[in-house]
């Protein structure tokens, strides 16, 4: 694993969280980002499930990378991911049935989450096991944090609660629109604008 | 007449009220990527409509005739994604053979339809809504494609005008597109009470 020595695992990990944050910088995986962020709990569940699938698929793809033929590799990635998503889905159905009902089809939709295919293609099919695992963890945690941040803003503004507990004063009037699709689109748009401003200030 | 009425209402509801892009957040990636020019957007919409109709019909058949009969629902996701990948491959070969110029202009976006969440999403929703009649499944799949085409074309039209507008620096690009989509989705919320 000569290539493992060139790239520092720590920098790969940090890149996933901020510099190459999948949602805020690469604009990948928009569907779950927008769909499950009405409250923090489903967002956290979604983030952890996606991280699990990403980690497993990166490990498998990285181990298989010398055997993959170029023209069938995307199909192989998708099948690997679909298998692990089925595992995650069955796990949620068995141990967290309420959460599974709430997330509905968005758990199986992790299969077509661009983040996972993108990491399999860009990282795991070129790098060794160690880098792939670190990359998956960094990207997964970056994704989860972004989801939770967005969900926290929306949940507080739309219901006045956080994790189901009241955090706003009683006189607070909930903004119903924040819990609807329009809230998701506008909040994410403003978050991206904020990231643009921060990046410009830095450079 | 009852069935015809159900079909028309189902079609309208999936195009307008339950529009995949605005209410279910499906297919956002191509929606942000391709909606720069209206002709490209329309071509993309047509390709997606074709694939989603084909994939929706095939997955419904597989789900009802094979998987549910033998109790293999566990394999549902793997089967669905295989069918979709196959359908996209078919479209790609067909377009390449009969419309070479169109094939060139699509480039990478054609194979990427496989990972368009709108398609897998619709197949899963057909399963979730427990659609029992074959014709209804076909009509709903087609309606979902039309809804996607409509959303992406409206967006492309707005973005062509947006180029002339004075957008603040920080909002350039993706942020303003998302905010526009938010306002559009608010407009589509007005249809929500139309079909119960």
What's the SSE blueprint?
The complex is a heterodimer of chains A (203) and B (196).
Chain A: H1 3-6, H2 9-19, H3 30-35, H4 40-64, H5 73-95, H6 97-103, H7 114-124, H8 129-159, E1 161-162, E2 165-166, H9 181-202
Antiparallel strand pairs in A: 1-2
Helix pairs in contact in A: 2-8, 4-5, 4-7, 4-8, 5-6, 5-7, 7-8
Chain B: H1 2-17, H2 20-24, H3 28-34, H4 38-70, H5 76-98, H6 100-106, H7 117-128, H8 134-162, H9 174-189
* Ends distance of chain A: 35 Å
User: Which series of helices and strands of chain B comes N to C?
Assistant: HHHHHHHHH
Total number of β-strand segments of chain B?
A: 0
Residue runs with pLDDT of under 50 for 5 or more positions of chain A: none
User: How many domains is the backbone of chain A divided into?
Assistant: 1
- Mean pLDDT rating of chain A: 85
Number of domains of chain B: 1
pLDDT < 50 runs, ≥5 residues of chain B? none
Strand content of chain A: under 5%
Helix content of chain A: 55-70%
Terminal CA distance of chain B reads 19 Å
Give the ordered list of helices and strands of chain A: HHHHHHHHEEH
The largest interface is: A-B, 42 and 45 residues
Beta percentage of chain B is under 5%
By DSSP (H or I, 4+ residues per run), the number of helices of chain B equals 9
What is the general shape of chain A?
Answer: globular
Which structural class do you get from the secondary structure elements of chain B? mainly alpha
């Amino acid at each position: 694993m000569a290539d493992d020595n060139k790239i520092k695992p720590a920098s790969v990990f940090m890149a996933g969280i901020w510099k190459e944050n999948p949602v805020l910088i690469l604009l990948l995986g928009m569907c779950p980002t927008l769909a499950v962020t009405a409250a923090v709990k489903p967002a956290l569940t979604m983030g952890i499930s996606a991280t699990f699938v990403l980690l497993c698929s990166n490990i498998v793809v990285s181990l298989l990378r010398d055997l993959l033929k170029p023209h069938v590799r995307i199909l192989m990635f998708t099948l690997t991911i679909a298998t692990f998503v089925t595992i995650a889905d069955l796990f949620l159905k068995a141990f967290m049935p309420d959460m599974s009902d709430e997330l509905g089809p968005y758990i199986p939709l992790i299969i077509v989450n661009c983040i996972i295919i993108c990491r399999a293609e860009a990282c795991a099919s070129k790098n060794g096991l160690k880098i792939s695992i670190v990359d998956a963890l960094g990207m997964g945690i970056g994704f989860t944090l972004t989801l939770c941040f967005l969900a926290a803003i929306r949940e507080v503004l739309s219901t006045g609660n956080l994790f189901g507990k009241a955090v706003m004063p009683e006189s607070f009037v909930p903004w119903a629109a924040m819990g609807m699709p329009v809230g998701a689109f506008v909040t994410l748009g403003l978050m991206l604008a904020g990231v643009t401003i921060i990046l410009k200030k830095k450079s | 007449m009852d069935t015809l009425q159900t079909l028309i209402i189902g079609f309208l509801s999936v195009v307008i009220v339950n529009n995949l892009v605005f209410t279910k957040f499906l297919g956002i990636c191509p929606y942000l990527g391709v909606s720069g020019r209206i002709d490209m957007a329309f071509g993309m919409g047509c390709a997606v409509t074709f694939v989603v109709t084909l994939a929706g019909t095939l997955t419904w058949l597989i789900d009802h005739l094979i998987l549910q009969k033998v109790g293999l629902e566990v394999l549902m996701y793997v089967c669905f994604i295989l069918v979709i990948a196959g359908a996209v491959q078919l479209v790609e070969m067909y377009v390449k053979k009969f419309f070479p110029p169109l094939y060139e202009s699509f480039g990478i976006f054609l194979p990427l339809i496989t990972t368009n969440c709108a398609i897998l999403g619709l197949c899963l929703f057909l399963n979730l809504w427990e659609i029992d009649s074959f014709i209804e499944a076909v009509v709903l799949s087609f309606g979902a494609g039309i809804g996607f085409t409509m959303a992406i074309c409206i967006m492309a039209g707005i973005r062509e005008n947006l180029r002339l507008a004075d957008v603040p620096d920080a909002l350039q690009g993706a942020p303003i597109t998302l905010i526009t989509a938010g306002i559009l989705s608010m407009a589509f919320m007005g249809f929500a009470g139309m079909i119960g």
